[in-house]
Every structure is written in C-alpha cells, then in structure tokens.
C-alpha cells in the first residue's frame, strides 16, 4: 500500500506532522512545528519546507493558509497571515511549458519572499514569488501581490496596487479610537480584557 521510494519516504514525515497537528491547539501546534513560542497557527495551515521559514515573534497564521518556504520565506514580528492566504516562493510554469513537470525537475524556479513586521495579509490573498512587503503593510482579502510593496501601505486588487499610505499619526489615532471603544464595551459587559463581541449600539 505504501511506496518505498525516496520521494515517498521524504514526504511521509510531513504528512504525519500535519496529521498530528490537527489534534493540537494553536500554541501547541506552533511548538510542535518548532515555531516561536508566541506564534499562533490555526488548524489546517500548511508550511512547505519549514526549514527555510524565518518567523518573528507574535505572528498569527490562519486556517488553510499555505506558506511555501521552499525558496526562502522571512516573516517579521507581529504579522498576521489570513485564512486561506497563499504565499509562494517557487514556480513550476517553465517545467510545465517544457513538459518536464516531474519531481526534482531543474526547471522549478525558487525565489525568496520577505514580509515585514506588523503586516496584515487578508484572507485568500496571494503573495507571488520574489515579492518583498515592507513593514506595516496591509494586503486586503483576495488580492494578488506580484510586485514589491513599500512600508506603511494598504494594497488591494489583482494585481494589487497601493490605495493608501499610512503615517504614524494616523495609526496612533486609529489605535486610540479602537482602544476607547473596547474600554467602553468592557464597562457594559463582563469581559475582563480584549475586544468584546456583540451589538453595543
């Protein structure tokens, strides 16, 4: 039933790791995968070639996200990767065109991706190989980022383009607004911390 070849034997530990990971909570899964202790990684998220992933502290990786680190992937601290987001560091298009799309093909191209600190990658966004996102970048859901993005920008679309640039004063004002609203909500509810959910109009 099981193949006993080099590729199968190399992939089997990854399959078993993924299976065991489904029975762990976010923090346990992160520790099991050798990620920083402050990482939260949701169920069904997948990391390809985790040995090539460099991940900062306090990162969050959503359900069904796929992080392809085979070409090298660096993610800064306090960055979130949304539900179902895809980060690619390799492409096999040339292997397909040359009819050489087989395991170990020398036509697979790998280029690293860098995602800065304090970034938010929305759900189902796609980051293409070779892209660098600066610090504090927001990628709106369902966007396809195919070129570098400077720091403190909001990008959206396919292909993604810059829609807004943030300055530090804007971010601080927004943080104050949200903290004040959450403090107001905590006075109404019994939630001792965080962001209370519900209708507070």
TrEMBL record:
<comment type="similarity">
    <text>Belongs to the transferase hexapeptide repeat family.</text>
</comment>
<dbReference type="GO" id="GO:0008374">
    <property type="term" value="F:O-acyltransferase activity"/>
</dbReference>
<keyword id="KW-0808">Transferase</keyword>
<dbReference type="GO" id="GO:0005829">
    <property type="term" value="C:cytosol"/>
</dbReference>
<dbReference type="Pfam" id="PF00132">
    <property type="entry name" value="Hexapep"/>
</dbReference>
<protein>
    <submittedName>
        <fullName>Acyltransferase</fullName>
    </submittedName>
</protein>
<keyword id="KW-0012">Acyltransferase</keyword>
<dbReference type="InterPro" id="IPR051159">
    <property type="entry name" value="Hexapeptide_acetyltransf"/>
</dbReference>
<dbReference type="InterPro" id="IPR001451">
    <property type="entry name" value="Hexapep"/>
</dbReference>
<dbReference type="InterPro" id="IPR011004">
    <property type="entry name" value="Trimer_LpxA-like_sf"/>
</dbReference>
